[in-house]
Amino acid sequence: MSEREAMEFDVVIVGGGPAGLAAAIRLRQLNPEANVCLIEKGSEIGAHIVSGAVIEPRALEELFPDWLERGAPLKTPVTEEEMYFLTEKKGFRIPALDRVMPHLANHGNYVVSLGDVCRWLAEQAEELGVEIYPGFAGAEVLIEKNRVVGVATGDMGITRDGEKGPNYQPGMELRAKYTLFAEGCRGSLTKQVMEHYNLRKGVDPQTYGLGIKEVWEIPAENHRPGLVVHSFGWPLDDRTYGGAWLYHFGENLVSYGFVTGLDYENTWLSPFDEMQRTKLHPIFRKHFEGGRRLIYGARALSEGGLQSIPRLTFPGGALLGDSAGFLNTPKIKGTHTAMKSGMLAAEAVIDALKAERVEPAAYTSLVRQSWLYDELKSARNVRPAFARWGSKLGALYAGFDAMVLRGKAPWTLHFKHADNETLKPASLSTPIAYPKPDNTITFDKLSSVFLSNTNHEEDQPVHLKVRNMGLWKTVNWDVFRSPESRYCPAAVYEAVDTDAEARLVINSQNCVHCKTCDIKDPTQNIDWCTPEGAGGPNYPSGM
Amino acid sequence: MTVLVLVETEAGQIRQASRSAITAATKLGDVHALVVGNAADADAAAALAAKVTGVAKVLKAGADVLTHELAEPVADLIVSLAGDYSHIVAASTAVGKNVLPRAAALLDVQPIPDVMAVIDADTFVRPIYAGNALATVKSSDAKKVLTVRATSFDPAPAEGGSAAIDAVNVTVQDTVSRFVSEHTPTSDRPELESARVIVSGGRGLGSAENFQSVLTPLADKLGAAIGASRVAVDSGYAENDCQVGQTGKIVAPELYIAVGISGAIQHLAGMKDSKVIVAINKDADAPMLQVADYALVGDLFEAVPELAKAL
Amino acid sequence: MKILVPVKRVVDYNIKVLVKSDGTGVETAGLKMSMNPFDEIAVEEAVRLREKGSATEVIAVSIGVQQAQDTLRTAMAMGADRSILVLSEESPEPLAVAKVLKALVEREKPDLVFLGKQAIDDDMNATGQMLAGLLGWGQGTFASKVEIVDGRAEVTREIDGGTETVSLAVPAIVTADLRLNEPRYASLPNIMKAKKKPLETIQAADLGVDMTRRLTTVSVAEPPVRKAGIKVGSVAELVEKLRNEAKVI
């Protein structure tokens, strides 16, 4: 421990997504003297950002009323919207979308590359004096006298077998009066903090989705900037939550992706293949003709909403954005809520700094008083309705909730199970026959991972820690036939020697940091830990 | 137009890559071959150069200062001979890449390295971004200095010509550099990056023992380096420094034999520029077979020893 | 002994670049940029020589756009003492770079200039050799080992099929190959400290160097996709094809 260098800050923020960056900016806006340090495990800001994304500019407008003049990369306003219920061959367009599914009315919103928005936010933050250090992963929470006093970055140059290599560099302690965790969904340090302070006591289990995304470049004559298409129904069965998105934006770019609710039951389901085969549906296929695929990526997202949000503060810090679970699932938007939560946390922290309070507890009440809370409250019953009654009835309930109850139902539906508990054994699941990739519209996993520019320093310990390999054999293989080899969108997990003594191979170098294995493993036997800083995907501009 | 080609010699022999450079140069004009070395080597090599098809004249520069083809004296020599030549060409070898840019700077010319195709006297195709893109570039320099990729041009036939040999009066000196020693291992296995032939193994080999026992005899027969896919390295079949691919080494040998390698795109990224690719795999759908010039679908444990025996 | 280390800001080696669909070039906008990996090796070697006591000062220099200062900060985080940014267009040609460097060498009077052997964007592999030519210095290119022996630089060079060692009078140019060393990480404390190291900015124009490009890019294309060849039915057929058709054995 002693060989680590340490540095003191007022506030340390872990994670350079919209929540962390908005918090950093707000902190310096409110107190230009505050020492604010932000670390990001990606090689640069934006390198690990995956989102649709249609964003609501509401929080951005509060943060920078002059965002337009500052050149924020919100260039494609939503112009047309289509929502489809799909059967295998047909798509039924939902009429009067703004009344039936008002959450999805996107008028006034923008199609963006969230990675680019984050790069821009980081520029603004640095101008305001925030110190930003990409390429450094928060690997350890520092807790002293039951107060979080900062984080330590990971050691660099540890060899595969855990020894100090020739280029060993110890991590660094970033000590702070307040530490804000903005790691996104299923943050690895957030997980430790939640456990240590028992922050999930009394709230519903979090439920998650896995979003898998591609960016395409298509012929100019087919490009309709601002077009927003969503679908639900096929290819998922009625018990499985999810659907596709397709947005036209930027210079002949198309963002296409698919979210699969991770409370799915069929162990044979492969979110990656659902995503690939949906592109072949006539509603979507025409958008890809003549185009070329540029980028691929994946990331889990929190879908639980209000019922699943843990206690937000603890001695010495707070949880922000999707680390806390502020995503508005019916809206399928979390950027504006993440930013807002960061801004509110910043206000509470500035206040706590002045009063030298241990816990920035005002954050919780600020959230309760803000539009953020109202929004999540009115949306709270939609996702659980899908979990309970399936897609068709869930959608009906959602329409009823929106048109009749207007989000003001006197009841709250709850999530009963964590996502790792929902899987059915292989013998009780129906195998799914996915089409082979055609290498024009659809592709295999490895050539997809190639387009995420993923890399990890080879000589380092495996960052996906299987606690008990014996359990993998008796549960994951014997009962579920290796679901991780299907839900992992990056071909990290492979069951080999399946005709003899099956064993698990972990290709950790492929990992795109989506965190699905940490969520979905039936016995929570896989721990996603931060690899050496700067490892993981390198999503370029446009993602 | 007349083109000056720097011809590399090795113990009085002409290197094959230089004959490829001659082929490229013939597309630009009459070829004068410059042969450098100590007096004896230059004599021997000049006689051979005179026979190479396409060579119109041989310039023989024999002097002790040129023995090791060091950049400093050779570049000065080229500059002193540059005169009216429209192009100065060498192969993209360690020598060519060392010498020609230096000569170009002295001539105030921006060199054009690694030429893969000659479009016209001013315009050439060359790889950028490790071969992930091919740029067609046009030079505005009065004199062009280029190195050419040997694998992009067939070597000019060693026989068929009868050029005159002119001895050059060598006056260049070298006051700044001095040759100390050379180390060219012959018995050891060649380095992956510079090997002419690579035998590479993947998961299909099943174990570290098989990896050695199956691949080594074939590699020995071919004088080949041994490579491995990432899976083979990760599974402990082969050492890390054998890894070919996106995160390993990028290779472009004349012959690449992929044994039991499925051919994930990450692996292909490291060897797709090989001149000839052979795939031996039991899976007829393996992506490696989609890029192989010769694919043998079958049991590698039978095929590879049989191949080693047949060579 | 003073060492000058020119470093170039290039598209990060992990990023696969794409050829623009109109064939005018490679799309580089918005891509992660990093120090050219060969230049990292050069910086590392220079810093090691200073740490060993063979050198007294390491100066990093970059020629290009304003953002190249990030690359210089990285060099300083790795151990360079100070740096110079020469502002110019993005990615000037090696000839122009060599001329700018010559002007800087005349100003800074270093004993050694360490460069990466080539930049991974234009793959020119020329700047070090050209600078050596313009200065009339000896050149130890593609170095896999560098030692200072009796005031001379002894450089082991990667050549086809092996290595060669040359002894160079100092001042001299060395270009780094992959095996020279494994560069260190820029650690977080050192990145923080590097923010305070001196970085001087000058305009290329002020050095009186003509930077006019000599090469124009007519077009850029993707390399042809490799097509599947033939299936052979037996080992004997394979041997026959390799011998008589492909002529590689």
UniProtKB/TrEMBL annotation, chain C:
- Keyword annotations from UniProtKB, A to Z: Electron transport, Transport
Location of the Sigma-54 factor interaction domain: 58-227
Q: Which Pfam families match?
A: ETF
SUPFAM superfamilies the record matches: Adenine nucleotide alpha hydrolases-like
InterPro entries attached here?
ET-Flavoprotein_bsu_CS, ETF_a/b_N, ETF_b, ETF_beta_N, Rossmann-like_a/b/a_fold, Sigma_54_int
Supply the name of the protein: Electron transfer flavoprotein subunit beta
- Species name: Acetobacter sicerae
What's this protein's family per the entry? Belongs to the ETF beta-subunit/FixA family.
